[in-house]
Every structure is written in structure tokens, then in C-alpha cells.
Amino acid sequence: MIKRIGVSFTKTNFQNYWNWFNEEDLLGQAELVELSFLQNNEEDIASCDAYILTGGIDISPAFYSGAGQYTGMPEEFQKERDRFEEKIFRFSQSKQLPLLGICRGLQFVNVMMGGKLIQDLGEGNAIHKKITEDKQHGIRVEEGTLLQEITGSSKGIVNSAHHQAIDPTFLGENLKVNAFSTTGDRVIEGIEFDDKTGKAFMLCIQWHPERMMQKEESPFSIRLKKRFLEEVNHQI
Fold first, then answer.
1. Which has fewest Cβ within 10 Å: 41, 53, 79, 208?
2. Does 128 qualify as catalytic in the annotation?
3. Does the model's pTM come out above 0.70?
């Protein structure tokens, strides 16, 4: 049976996520499914075997009791996207299905687990926020984490295109940090479940593996994709 990977729709660079998986990756064993808040195709959520929560616009502060006004906030939030992706996340966890969160996806998982966000990084935006191209910076991977197991690395270079981040004083329940930036501000660059008992594969990262430079060589892209696909194909 062909496995179905649900990819949450974003108005920002959605095609990059789609293109990250080529025919050789899928090998006729898996297919991608667009899960779109615009189409509200909620019925397709239950048909999927794994999920990717993509990047994009800031999460509405109402979802984590954030300030209603802050620097860099969008002109308009997409609350319908937040509500739709909440359904994706809740379903993935209730059915113990693999989940990969990218950029906003990482922040969204933290919020869903009761955490909060730094709503604007301020001076840190010079390091992390995309202007015309993604920024590049170092990360340190925490020992003994799933991320270290997958990448086989304790440090590396990733791309960056965000002005918000997980608030380290409000990390979501049963989450642990698996990577920090090495730029001095120690921005949280990845999270996973702390106690993985009874949990499916779940890895969330702040960078964009689907569009990073040399993504076919970097362990912070190619190995993440490979492991995610292994988890998908192992679903019964």
C-alpha cells in the first residue's frame, strides 16, 4: 500500500517542500498530499500516514497568550491555518503517526504542547531573519538526542529565515531541545519529545532543509529526509 505524506499548505514557498521529495525518494512507495487550510480538506488528514508542518506566517498570538501587538507582526494572521494545522497535529498524536516540523512547524508544535514564543528576536533578526536570501549560521546539537542520532553530527551550518523563536522559559510539555544556535543568542534550533514512550517519530527544526545550500550533501537535510521516509514506510 502506498503511504501518504500530508504536507500542510503555506502561501510562502510551498513548492520547495514538494520538490524536496523526488521520484527516487518516494520510489513508488509514498506520495505527497497537500493539506490546505484554503481548501479545508480536513477529510484528507485521516488518509495520511505521516505529516510535515511547514513554515510561513506567524502563528496567531491568541494560540499561546502572546502580546496582541509586537514588532514584525504580519498585517493579518491566518487563524484558519492555525486551526487547520491544530487538527493535523492532534490527529498525528492520537494515531501515533510520524511528524516533521519545519520553522513555523517547530514553533507550532511548541505552542500545541503548551509552550510560548519569543515574538520578535530584535537584534537577533540580523542573524536569523531572511532579507533577500536565507541567513547561514552554526548550530550545536545536544548529546544523546534523536537529532544527533540521525545526523551523526554534534555541530553544523544551517540556513535561517525567521524573526520568532521558541521561548526557552516556556518550552512545551514533554519537549526537549536538541539543538541551539552558536551565534551567542542560543536560539532553540530543534526540539523532540523528551519521554518518547508511546510516541511516534517527531522531530522539529527551525531551519529549512528543503531549500538549504547543498541540501543533498548536508546531514541536516538529506539525513533528516531519509530518516523521515524510513519512519513513513515503517507504518503498518
1. 79
2. no
3. yes
pLDDT band at 183 (very low <50, low <70, confident <90, very high): confident
Q: What total of structural domains would you count in the chain?
A: 1
Q: What is the DSSP letter of 11?
A: S
The string of pLDDT tens digits covering residues 136-165 is: 999 999 999 999 999 999 999 999 999 999
List 203's β-bridge partners, or say none. Answer: 100, 192
pLDDT digits (tens, 9 = 90+) for 192-222: 999 999 999 999 999 999 999 999 999 999 9
Residue 236 has pLDDT above 80, yes or no: no
| pLDDT score of 184 | 81
> DSSP letter string over 137-186?
EEEEEPTTSHHHHHH--SEEEEEE--S-EE-GGGPPTTEEEEEEESSSS-
Is 234 known to be catalytic?
A: no
Catalytic position from the list 189, 192, 210, 231: 210
Cα–Cα dist 141/189, whole Å: 9
Q: Is the dihedral of CA 179, 181, 182, 186 positive or negative?
A: negative
What angle, 0 to 180 degrees and rounded to 10, lies between the N-to-C axes of helices 79-94 and 104-112? Answer: 70
Task: Give me the residues paired with residue 136 across strands.
Answer: 159
Strand-strand pairing, 188-193 and 155-160 = unpaired
- Amino acid type, 125: N
Residue in 128, 137, 163, 208 annotated catalytic: 208
208 is catalytic: yes
Domain extent at residue 182: 3-233
